[in-house]
Protein backbone atom coordinates (compact mmCIF):
# COMPACT_ATOMS: atom_id res chain seq x y z
CA UNK A 1 0.00 0.00 0.00
CA UNK A 2 1.28 3.48 -0.84
CA UNK A 3 2.34 5.63 2.07
CA UNK A 4 0.20 8.45 0.66
CA UNK A 5 -3.57 8.54 0.64
CA UNK A 6 -5.17 8.15 -2.77
CA UNK A 7 -6.88 11.51 -2.75
CA UNK A 8 -6.22 14.62 -4.89
CA UNK A 9 -7.31 17.01 -2.13
CA UNK A 10 -5.34 18.32 0.84
CA UNK A 11 -8.41 18.34 3.07
CA UNK A 12 -11.68 16.48 3.11
CA UNK A 13 -14.46 18.41 4.83
CA UNK A 14 -17.02 15.99 6.17
CA UNK A 15 -20.28 17.93 6.08
CA UNK A 16 -23.74 17.35 7.44
CA UNK A 17 -26.81 19.57 7.53
CA UNK A 18 -29.91 19.23 9.66
CA UNK A 19 -33.04 20.93 8.38
CA UNK A 20 -36.54 21.81 9.47
CA UNK A 21 -39.03 19.03 8.93
CA UNK A 22 -42.51 17.82 9.73
CA UNK A 23 -43.59 14.25 10.41
CA UNK A 24 -44.93 12.39 7.36
CA UNK A 25 -44.71 15.50 5.18
CA UNK A 26 -41.80 15.77 2.75
CA UNK A 27 -43.44 18.78 1.08
CA UNK A 28 -42.35 20.80 4.12
CA UNK A 29 -39.74 23.45 3.12
CA UNK A 30 -36.37 22.26 4.52
CA UNK A 31 -34.40 25.15 5.99
CA UNK A 32 -30.94 24.37 7.31
CA UNK A 33 -30.83 24.58 11.12
CA UNK A 34 -27.43 23.00 11.81
CA UNK A 35 -24.31 23.36 9.66
CA UNK A 36 -21.43 21.12 10.73
CA UNK A 37 -18.04 20.19 9.29
CA UNK A 38 -15.22 17.93 10.48
CA UNK A 39 -11.79 18.07 8.84
CA UNK A 40 -9.64 15.19 7.64
CA UNK A 41 -6.20 16.27 6.45
CA UNK A 42 -5.11 13.76 3.81
CA UNK A 43 -1.45 14.80 3.77
CA UNK A 44 -0.95 14.25 7.50
CA UNK A 45 -3.54 11.43 7.46
CA UNK A 46 -5.31 12.74 10.56
CA UNK A 47 -8.75 13.90 11.61
CA UNK A 48 -8.22 17.45 12.86
CA UNK A 49 -9.67 17.34 16.36
CA UNK A 50 -8.66 20.99 16.82
CA UNK A 51 -10.50 22.29 13.76
CA UNK A 52 -14.24 21.94 13.16
CA UNK A 53 -17.24 24.09 12.29
CA UNK A 54 -20.58 23.74 14.04
CA UNK A 55 -23.26 26.41 13.92
CA UNK A 56 -26.98 26.38 14.53
CA UNK A 57 -29.09 28.36 12.09
CA UNK A 58 -32.31 30.27 12.64
CA UNK A 59 -34.95 29.39 10.02
CA UNK A 60 -37.02 32.18 8.51
CA UNK A 61 -39.92 30.49 6.72
CA UNK A 62 -40.87 28.32 9.70
CA UNK A 63 -39.04 29.81 12.70
CA UNK A 64 -40.86 27.53 15.15
CA UNK A 65 -39.54 23.96 15.10
CA UNK A 66 -42.12 21.22 14.92
CA UNK A 67 -42.18 18.84 17.87
CA UNK A 68 -41.09 16.10 15.47
CA UNK A 69 -38.06 18.10 14.29
CA UNK A 70 -36.97 19.01 17.81
CA UNK A 71 -37.18 15.39 18.94
CA UNK A 72 -35.46 14.04 15.82
CA UNK A 73 -32.50 16.42 15.92
CA UNK A 74 -32.25 17.10 19.64
CA UNK A 75 -32.18 20.83 18.85
CA UNK A 76 -34.33 22.97 21.14
CA UNK A 77 -36.23 26.11 20.21
CA UNK A 78 -34.18 28.37 22.47
CA UNK A 79 -30.99 27.38 20.63
CA UNK A 80 -32.61 28.17 17.30
CA UNK A 81 -34.04 31.49 18.46
CA UNK A 82 -30.55 32.68 19.46
CA UNK A 83 -28.89 31.53 16.24
CA UNK A 84 -27.98 33.60 13.19
CA UNK A 85 -29.76 33.21 9.86
CA UNK A 86 -28.23 31.16 7.07
CA UNK A 87 -26.59 34.03 5.12
CA UNK A 88 -24.80 35.09 8.30
CA UNK A 89 -23.72 31.54 9.12
CA UNK A 90 -22.49 30.98 5.57
CA UNK A 91 -20.35 34.12 5.84
CA UNK A 92 -18.98 32.75 9.12
CA UNK A 93 -18.16 29.49 7.34
CA UNK A 94 -16.23 31.19 4.55
CA UNK A 95 -14.33 33.21 7.17
CA UNK A 96 -13.56 29.94 8.99
CA UNK A 97 -12.17 28.46 5.77
CA UNK A 98 -9.90 31.47 5.32
CA UNK A 99 -8.78 31.42 8.95
CA UNK A 100 -7.61 27.82 8.66
CA UNK A 101 -6.18 28.25 5.15
CA UNK A 102 -8.55 25.67 3.69
CA UNK A 103 -8.44 26.64 0.05
CA UNK A 104 -11.04 26.16 -2.65
CA UNK A 105 -10.05 23.46 -5.15
CA UNK A 106 -7.74 22.01 -2.48
CA UNK A 107 -10.60 20.56 -0.45
CA UNK A 108 -13.70 18.52 -1.17
CA UNK A 109 -16.84 17.98 0.84
CA UNK A 110 -17.75 14.46 1.96
CA UNK A 111 -21.41 13.62 2.65
CA UNK A 112 -23.16 10.36 3.44
CA UNK A 113 -25.57 10.80 0.50
CA UNK A 114 -26.65 13.33 -2.12
CA UNK A 115 -29.29 14.91 0.12
CA UNK A 116 -27.09 17.52 1.82
CA UNK A 117 -25.91 19.16 -1.41
CA UNK A 118 -28.54 18.33 -4.00
CA UNK A 119 -31.57 19.01 -1.81
CA UNK A 120 -30.67 21.00 1.32
CA UNK A 121 -27.91 23.30 0.06
CA UNK A 122 -29.52 23.89 -3.33
CA UNK A 123 -32.89 24.63 -1.74
CA UNK A 124 -31.43 26.93 0.93
CA UNK A 125 -29.70 29.12 -1.65
CA UNK A 126 -32.90 29.22 -3.71
CA UNK A 127 -34.70 30.50 -0.61
CA UNK A 128 -31.99 33.14 -0.23
CA UNK A 129 -32.28 34.01 -3.94
CA UNK A 130 -28.56 33.47 -4.35
CA UNK A 131 -26.62 31.36 -6.86
CA UNK A 132 -25.28 28.11 -5.49
CA UNK A 133 -21.59 28.64 -4.59
CA UNK A 134 -19.04 26.62 -6.54
CA UNK A 135 -17.91 24.74 -3.44
CA UNK A 136 -21.34 23.07 -3.13
CA UNK A 137 -21.58 21.82 -6.72
CA UNK A 138 -19.49 18.65 -6.28
CA UNK A 139 -18.78 16.29 -3.42
CA UNK A 140 -17.69 12.83 -2.33
CA UNK A 141 -20.73 10.65 -1.69
CA UNK A 142 -19.44 8.34 1.04
CA UNK A 143 -22.45 6.11 0.55
CA UNK A 144 -21.12 5.10 -2.87
CA UNK A 145 -17.72 4.20 -1.39
CA UNK A 146 -19.41 2.13 1.30
CA UNK A 147 -21.43 0.27 -1.34
CA UNK A 148 -18.21 -0.36 -3.29
CA UNK A 149 -16.52 -1.87 -0.22
CA UNK A 150 -19.66 -3.83 0.61
CA UNK A 151 -19.75 -5.43 -2.84
CA UNK A 152 -16.05 -6.33 -2.60
CA UNK A 153 -16.64 -8.04 0.74
CA UNK A 154 -19.56 -10.02 -0.74
CA UNK A 155 -21.39 -9.86 2.55
CA UNK A 156 -25.06 -10.12 3.20
CA UNK A 157 -26.85 -6.87 3.81
CA UNK A 158 -26.00 -5.08 7.05
CA UNK A 159 -29.08 -4.24 9.08
CA UNK A 160 -29.86 -0.59 9.58
CA UNK A 161 -32.38 1.96 8.35
CA UNK A 162 -29.68 4.50 7.41
CA UNK A 163 -26.24 4.59 5.84
CA UNK A 164 -24.87 5.71 9.21
CA UNK A 165 -26.03 2.50 10.89
CA UNK A 166 -25.07 0.31 7.95
CA UNK A 167 -21.57 1.80 7.81
CA UNK A 168 -21.18 1.47 11.57
CA UNK A 169 -21.94 -2.24 11.34
CA UNK A 170 -19.84 -2.90 8.25
CA UNK A 171 -16.70 -1.03 9.35
CA UNK A 172 -17.16 -1.89 13.03
CA UNK A 173 -16.92 1.79 13.95
CA UNK A 174 -19.30 2.76 16.76
CA UNK A 175 -21.45 5.83 16.36
CA UNK A 176 -21.21 8.01 19.45
CA UNK A 177 -23.72 10.76 20.02
CA UNK A 178 -27.21 11.69 18.94
CA UNK A 179 -28.65 10.49 15.66
CA UNK A 180 -29.41 13.51 13.47
CA UNK A 181 -27.02 15.73 15.37
CA UNK A 182 -24.95 17.06 12.48
CA UNK A 183 -21.67 17.39 14.40
CA UNK A 184 -21.93 13.90 15.87
CA UNK A 185 -22.60 12.47 12.42
CA UNK A 186 -19.65 14.39 10.94
CA UNK A 187 -17.32 12.97 13.60
CA UNK A 188 -18.46 9.45 12.75
CA UNK A 189 -18.29 9.94 8.98
CA UNK A 190 -14.77 11.33 9.31
CA UNK A 191 -13.71 8.03 10.92
CA UNK A 192 -15.34 6.06 8.13
CA UNK A 193 -13.66 8.23 5.49
CA UNK A 194 -10.29 7.68 7.14
CA UNK A 195 -10.90 3.92 7.19
CA UNK A 196 -11.70 3.96 3.48
CA UNK A 197 -8.47 5.85 2.79
CA UNK A 198 -6.42 3.66 5.14
CA UNK A 199 -7.63 0.64 3.16
CA UNK A 200 -6.03 2.10 0.03
CA UNK A 201 -9.20 3.24 -1.73
CA UNK A 202 -9.34 6.25 -4.02
CA UNK A 203 -11.42 9.08 -2.57
CA UNK A 204 -12.33 11.66 -5.17
CA UNK A 205 -15.39 13.60 -6.28
CA UNK A 206 -17.99 11.04 -7.33
CA UNK A 207 -21.15 13.14 -7.50
CA UNK A 208 -21.93 16.59 -8.84
CA UNK A 209 -24.76 18.80 -10.07
CA UNK A 210 -25.84 19.52 -13.63
CA UNK A 211 -28.68 21.39 -15.31
CA UNK A 212 -29.84 18.81 -17.86
CA UNK A 213 -30.57 15.14 -17.27
CA UNK A 214 -31.91 12.75 -19.90
CA UNK A 215 -34.31 10.96 -17.52
CA UNK A 216 -35.92 14.30 -16.64
CA UNK A 217 -37.14 14.58 -20.24
CA UNK A 218 -39.45 11.63 -19.62
CA UNK A 219 -42.71 12.66 -17.89
CA UNK A 220 -43.97 10.43 -15.10
CA UNK A 221 -47.15 10.06 -13.10
CA UNK A 222 -46.87 11.41 -9.59
CA UNK A 223 -47.54 9.05 -6.71
CA UNK A 224 -50.75 10.44 -5.14
CA UNK A 225 -49.15 9.95 -1.72
CA UNK A 226 -45.78 11.46 -2.64
CA UNK A 227 -45.80 13.94 0.23
CA UNK A 228 -45.64 11.11 2.76
CA UNK A 229 -43.03 9.02 0.92
CA UNK A 230 -39.30 9.73 0.96
CA UNK A 231 -38.67 7.85 -2.30
CA UNK A 232 -41.64 9.35 -4.16
CA UNK A 233 -40.91 12.86 -2.91
CA UNK A 234 -37.29 12.62 -4.07
CA UNK A 235 -38.52 11.73 -7.55
CA UNK A 236 -40.73 14.82 -7.50
CA UNK A 237 -37.90 17.02 -6.21
CA UNK A 238 -35.59 15.70 -8.95
CA UNK A 239 -38.00 17.27 -11.42
CA UNK A 240 -38.69 20.44 -9.42
CA UNK A 241 -35.15 21.48 -8.47
CA UNK A 242 -33.13 23.20 -11.22
CA UNK A 243 -29.98 21.12 -10.72
CA UNK A 244 -29.90 17.33 -10.55
CA UNK A 245 -27.29 15.13 -8.87
CA UNK A 246 -25.30 12.84 -11.13
CA UNK A 247 -22.68 10.15 -10.56
CA UNK A 248 -19.19 11.13 -11.70
CA UNK A 249 -16.81 8.32 -12.64
CA UNK A 250 -13.82 10.48 -13.60
CA UNK A 251 -13.33 13.89 -12.08
CA UNK A 252 -10.57 16.33 -12.96
CA UNK A 253 -10.26 19.33 -10.65
CA UNK A 254 -8.77 21.69 -13.24
CA UNK A 255 -11.39 20.92 -15.88
CA UNK A 256 -14.50 20.19 -13.83
CA UNK A 257 -14.42 22.02 -10.50
CA UNK A 258 -17.39 24.30 -9.92
CA UNK A 259 -18.86 23.68 -13.36
CA UNK A 260 -22.14 22.18 -14.47
CA UNK A 261 -21.16 18.83 -15.95
CA UNK A 262 -23.70 19.19 -18.74
CA UNK A 263 -22.86 22.59 -20.19
CA UNK A 264 -19.45 22.95 -18.48
CA UNK A 265 -20.36 26.48 -17.52
CA UNK A 266 -19.39 27.88 -14.12
CA UNK A 267 -22.25 30.38 -14.41
CA UNK A 268 -24.85 27.60 -14.52
CA UNK A 269 -25.84 27.93 -10.86
CA UNK A 270 -29.41 26.70 -10.78
CA UNK A 271 -31.11 30.09 -10.80
CA UNK A 272 -32.91 29.06 -14.02
CA UNK A 273 -34.62 25.71 -14.54
CA UNK A 274 -33.68 24.43 -18.01
CA UNK A 275 -36.07 21.46 -17.83
CA UNK A 276 -39.08 23.13 -16.24
CA UNK A 277 -41.59 20.37 -15.32
CA UNK A 278 -44.84 22.06 -16.29
CA UNK A 279 -46.50 18.66 -16.72
CA UNK A 280 -45.70 17.82 -13.10
CA UNK A 281 -47.29 20.94 -11.65
CA UNK A 282 -50.41 20.29 -13.73
CA UNK A 283 -50.76 16.88 -12.07
CA UNK A 284 -50.66 18.21 -8.52
CA UNK A 285 -54.03 18.05 -6.80
CA UNK A 286 -52.90 20.79 -4.45
CA UNK A 287 -49.96 23.22 -4.71
CA UNK A 288 -46.56 22.11 -3.49
CA UNK A 289 -45.39 24.16 -0.51
CA UNK A 290 -41.81 23.06 -1.27
CA UNK A 291 -42.02 24.52 -4.79
CA UNK A 292 -43.99 27.67 -3.98
CA UNK A 293 -41.79 28.68 -1.04
CA UNK A 294 -38.62 28.57 -3.15
CA UNK A 295 -40.21 30.24 -6.17
CA UNK A 296 -39.86 27.14 -8.32
CA UNK A 297 -43.32 27.40 -9.94
CA UNK A 298 -43.80 29.84 -12.77
CA UNK A 299 -46.74 32.23 -12.57
Automatic annotation (TrEMBL):
Query: Which InterPro entries does its entry note?
Result: 3-5_Exoribonuclease, ERI-1_3'hExo-like, Ribonucl_H, RNaseH-like_sf, RNaseH_sf
Q: Does the keyword Translocase apply?
A: no
Q: Where is the Exonuclease domain?
A: 11-202
What GO molecular functions are on record for this protein? 3'-5'-RNA exonuclease activity; nucleic acid binding
One Pfam family, short name: RNase_T
Gene3D superfamilies given for it? Ribonuclease H-like superfamily/Ribonuclease H
Q: Which UniProt keyword terms apply here?
A: Exonuclease, Hydrolase, Nuclease
Task: Return the CDD domains for the record.
Answer: ERI-1_3'hExo_like
The superkingdom of the source organism is Eukaryota
Q: What is this protein called?
A: Exonuclease domain-containing protein
Q: Which organism is it from?
A: Caenorhabditis briggsae
Amino acid sequence: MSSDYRCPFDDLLILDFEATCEKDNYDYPPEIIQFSVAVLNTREKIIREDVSFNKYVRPVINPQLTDFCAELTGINQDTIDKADTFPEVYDQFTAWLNKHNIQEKRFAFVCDSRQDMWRFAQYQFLLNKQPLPTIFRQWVNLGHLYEQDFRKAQQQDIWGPSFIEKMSGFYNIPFNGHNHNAMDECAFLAKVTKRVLDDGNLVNINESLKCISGPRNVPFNIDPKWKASFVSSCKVFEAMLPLVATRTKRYYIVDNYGKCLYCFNADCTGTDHKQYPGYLYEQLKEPSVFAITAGLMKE
